[in-house]
Amino acid sequence: MAKRKVDTENRGFQTRWESEYMFTKVAGKPVCLLCGESVAVLKEYNLRRHYETKHADKNKNMDMEQRLQKAEELKRGLKSRQALFKKAKSQGQAAVKASFILAEEIAKSARPFTEGDFIKNCMIKVCDEVCPEKRQLFLNVSLSRNTIAERVDQLSINLKEQLVKKGKDFIAYSLAVDESTDISDIAQLSIFIRGVDSNLSVTEEFLALRPMHGTTTGHDLYEEVSRCVNEMELPWEKLVGLTTDGAPAMCGHRSGLVAKIREKMQEENATGELTAYHCIIHQEALCGKALKMEHVMSIITRTVNFIRAKGLNHRQFKAFLTELETEHGDLPYHTEVRWLSQGKVLQRCFELREEICLFLDSKGKDTTQLRDEMFLCEMAFLCDITSHLNAINLQLQGRDRVISDMYSTVKAFKTKLTLWETQMRKENLSHFPSCQTMKGKLSTSAFPSTQLADKIGMLAADFRRRFADFEAQKSRLELLGNPFAVDVESSPPNLQMELIDLQCNDALRAKYAAVGAAEFARFLPGTMPQLRIQAAQTLSMFGSTYLCEQLFSLMNLNKTSHRSRLTAEHLHSILRISSAQSLTPNIDELVEKMGHHQVSPSTSNK
Description:
- The protein is of the alpha/beta class.
- Helices cover 59% and strands 9% of the residues.
- It has helices at residues 16-21, 44-54, 64-108, 115-130, 135-139, 145-167, 218-231, 248-251, 257-267, 280-287, 294-309, 311-324, 341-351, 353-362, 368-371, 373-396, 403-425, 433-441, 449-466, 468-472, 474-481, 493-503, 506-515, 517-520, 529-539, 546-558, 568-579, 587-593, 601-604; strands at 23-26, 29-32, 170-181, 187-197, 202-212, 239-244, 275-278.
- It has a five-stranded mixed β-sheet with strand order 5-4-3-6-7, sandwiched between helices. A two-stranded antiparallel ribbon has the order 1-2.
- It is elongated and about 125 Å long.
- Residues 6-10 and 596-606 have low confidence and may be disordered.
């Protein structure tokens, strides 16, 4: 015989029990109005036994009407206590939620954790003026240093859990890895992930920042990356690409990070081949050195340093420019690590070349080199070509960049270089405005067009050499960039039938024209699984380590000389919050997990 289950017997609470036994129903359970105890099983026998055992003597002289009145009074008292408790719970949760929200903002703005106390003092003063009756509610919001630190860690853990959950759905993912040193001379390894799920939706997020207190060999880097991948429960066979800064420890053929990860993938019996890239932006910046015009830049740098290094010279130069009513009022510094600064310095120096010479003459400095026509022609050329290089650099920067689009940008620039070289040999300076200006001002010497055309040829050759890795992946990248223009015969056999179906589908061709290459992949039908996998792998690839460089800038904003003792764990949490893109902390979930915890005013003021 089956065992009886109480919850299947459909027992209901009867209204008459309120006056007869002084019970009411709260959250599905019978609760005594007199003592507050609840009865486990909803049976009249249980209610009557409880009443007769504990309360019968106190209420035996009351008639039915008096019982009804007392039951109603007790019910009203119970409801008011419940409402008070709910209000207190609601206010406590609101205070906790507010502390989470402010902790997130403090982390994003690179403020120290102690800012919480300052913010709270400001809130209290505003409250005293605007709504003094709400003062206690603001006092209940805990914003002490320890609380903010704890909240930041909890927000970071929540984001990591979300990423781990998303990672389980990835059908392909790639990593971007770069290494830098913080203000405490600790090497920091930055790792970002770009994953694609079965719906071909892209997730690009911060994976980890690992401090490296010892050596930074390829083996050391591999150990940290491997540990990070395993912690995130990411399958090695779905790793498609690895983008690095090109350092020997990263790209060494035998003991570099790339080689170690390829060995690991072979151990894991991964069928796919790891595609390793040297950051496109870094490559483009290195190509600029192929011009071999350091002699021009050294004179410019020396001149700028003379003007800017001493306060008196700098003040007098600015006053001099003001007196001459020039368009620009100052000269910027050039910093080697800030690639775009060189173009700005060159442009400003070229525009102020005459004023600079006059100022240096007044200081008794030799300006023979700065007035030399050949030097000015080279300076004008370097100014123009650096401007073009800066333009492509800016095009390659940013988040959510698709590698096929970045490759197209580089390919277009190589074509431009070929055109510029041909035009320069013919002294056609249409795309070199500074050179045009100098050519019109030459008095004796001829414009060195052949020499400068050779410089452009050297730059083009260096672009071809440095981007040979991308040329090897040309067919793969073009397949995502424009699948309707791909030659079917030269494509891999497993894609040929699906490519024919795709190229003959007018509806998909119209969709491609409407949404563009990056978004089109999501509209590939399920009947083209090989094309979808190929698209997912290409979409997951990083073209640059831009995100890593951006993270190092955030790291330097947070870990300054005033916060040099910031722990690795707290720095990691701050950077995860401030660099999050597609993920947002689930604050409501965190508040719910904290349950009935309510911060008292005394605790929050510590």
